[in-house]
Design a protein that fits this description.
This protein is an alpha/beta fold. Helix content is about 50%, strand content about 15%. A three-stranded parallel sheet has the order 4-1-5, sandwiched between helices. α4 (about 100-120) packs antiparallel against α5.
Length: about 170
Amino acid sequence: EMDSVCKQKEHLSPTPSQPLKGLRIALDPGHIGGNMAMARIERKYISMKPDSIKHPNEKIELIEGKLTLATALFLKKQLEDSGATVFLTHNKPNVSAFGCTFDEWCKKNLSHAIDSLLKEGSITSKQKTHLLGNATQKDIFSLIFRDIELKERARIINDFHPDITLVIHYN
């Protein structure tokens, strides 16, 4: 086991100007919401009015997916400047680890995903009918997409073979 650890470290070749040279780092900015519509589907936002008397039209909205992506993009540049090779599970607002938006994924993959879940016994026929019929986007996201997308994040991170993985959240 020690030999494999030593072999893994052989690819590192840090220098004073690039102390992270050779290090492979995966960054996973949590959530995908880059706008309030997607943040509402994910249920990952804060919306508040700081002073409803003096400034009734002023509103502060914090979208966790936007914050995590901004943090990951900033961190990516800092790490690359230090010599690391950096991989992001997604690098644009509202784009999932599948490289598309939640809506695009639903149009292309929802029916197949539901059929697969039914076949493996994870959902019932009644749940399939509900999901394909009158389920809300929030239902589809929380009952189907979130877990499938998390598995995709894990898969693409593992394919990158990072030395370190950092999952970014603001809870």
